[in-house]
Amino acid sequence: MKFAYALALLGSVAQAHYTIPRVSANGVSRSDWQSVRRTANFQSNGPVEDVTSQAMTCYELQSGSQGATVLDVTAGGTLTFGIAPNIYHPGPVNVYMARAPTGNVLNFDGKGNVWFKVYSDAPTITSNGLNWPSDGQSTVSITVPRCIANGEYLVRFEHIGLHSASARNGAQLYISCAQVRVSGGSGTANPSLMAFPGAYSPTDPGLLINIYWPVPTSYTSPGGRPLVC
Question: What residue stretch is flagged as signal peptide (predicted)?
């Protein structure tokens, strides 16, 4: 009986984790890892918990594109991420972009102060708790900012599970990086840039927080506010 219970527990833990293996745009859907770099958790589904680790960049299984192709997107258009199986834990979605300095995203490692935030959701807060719009979702869509420059980018999708965030390094980060080629941008944006790792601290109020009791009256996601065109 103990063995059966242990197997059931392991199964429930595995189902509680997830990956972000798919991205689509302009009516073009891609299969798992076709335009997203394969992550180190592609089999375990496990999260990043140390926000100072190198895994914070793109959580890659191996460095480089790993055979992933580049998806064409239009500035002002919609980019949709697919989650496998779905976002199980409560917490925010943040999306960042980094333009490949050489123009070729396939060899871009995403290191240094190259990232800017383009999307962040916020919870609805009631006396019963915090509820994010991504709770339980298997897809999340964002709008590509119209004011960014044309070129090839890494797009870093991040969901932060806050169910265990009352302890240091208790927040669970689910991360992946898509490869896109942007056209139609105005190039007028001048966003503040940050690095992963480096942008987050384990003690950031959006990472070290008890979301259950007492119920917070506000929530501030790490990484600051997204770019507004």
Answer: 1-16
Residue 156, pLDDT > 90, answer yes
Judge contact between 79 and 138, C-beta under 8 A.
no
In whole angstroms, give the CA distance from residue 30 to residue 42: 16
Give the Cβ contact number of residue 11 at 10 Å: 10
Q: If you ran DSSP here, which 8-state letter would residue 229 be given?
A: -
Write down the residue that tokens 């501030």 correspond to: 220
pLDDT value, residue 30: 87
Q: How far apart are CA 201 and CA 52, in angstroms?
A: 7
pTM of the model: 0.92
Q: Which amino acid is at 147?
A: C
**Encoded tokens for 201:** 């601290």
* Predicted pLDDT at 137: 97
Looking only at the bridges linking them, the beta strands covering 93-99 and 28-29 are unpaired
What is the rounded CA–CA span in Å between residue 44 and residue 18? 8
Q: Residue 51 and residue 55: Cα distance in Å, rounded?
A: 8
